[in-house]
Amino acid sequence: MKKIFIPTIFIITMLLSFCGQKQDHGQATGKLFIIGGGNRTDSMMNELIDIAGIRTTGYVYILPMASSVPDSSIMWAKEDFAVTGVKKVFGFNFPAGITPPKTRLDSLRNARLIYISGGDQSRFMSVVINTPVMDAIHQAYRNGSVIAGTSAGAAVMSKKMITGNQKKHPGSDAGFITIESDNIEISQGLGFLNDVIIDQHFIKRQRLNRLVAASIENPDELCVGIDESTAIIVDGDYATVTGIGQVIVIKNGGRIKNVKNGLLGTDGLQLSVYLPGEKFKLR
Asked: Which of 98, 116, 196, 254 shows the greatest Cβ crowding within 10 Å of its Cβ?
């Protein structure tokens, strides 16, 4: 019998190729359901349940730490889910600075759907950043779970998170009435979207100025403003709009930043308005 000689380099190349493919399959991720705040319609909540696939198995885990009244926030979220007929809806307020019980972390890690309530996104991140809770949320996502959030729970989805505070006009209740430099406060979010910035309550609260400023000063980020009673469903590199409102997407293709007397200027911004059922590319 003839011996077949395969060069060592060829074998190594094939093994590395196989390992690379295996590693890619091992990085399977879930989906994001990012709600711009406001009322959650019955159809939206049912769609969320269907995407998570928990009609007959699995459960919802509510994280209320963005809220100043976390126990009430859990109750309100359960009422939202009640319209879907799903009974297995749980929640826990993980306190800041306290190591969570392993059983609680395991429950969070194994949830098919994790739902982050509204409130203050900075409050939420102050509790979970660089903690086992944050690790458990990411592990659930890597295992294929759906991570959902509304209002503040939407803002935390991206790596760069708009806090809602103005650096130049602290405590202002007039909203973002200018497009000026070094005014938008951005801190670290959960990081499910590494190159996207999320803004919420977008059209209802007239936040275009804020997102334009964020886009000019963060040209590598796709800036997405989600209106109330509206959501984007993120699956891989694409987002699909659902609900009853609009989604504004700003892309800073020109990457130009001009500053004069503190005001921001640019050229080449691309603005798109997406309606329910439409899809757009994130990357």
From this structure: 116
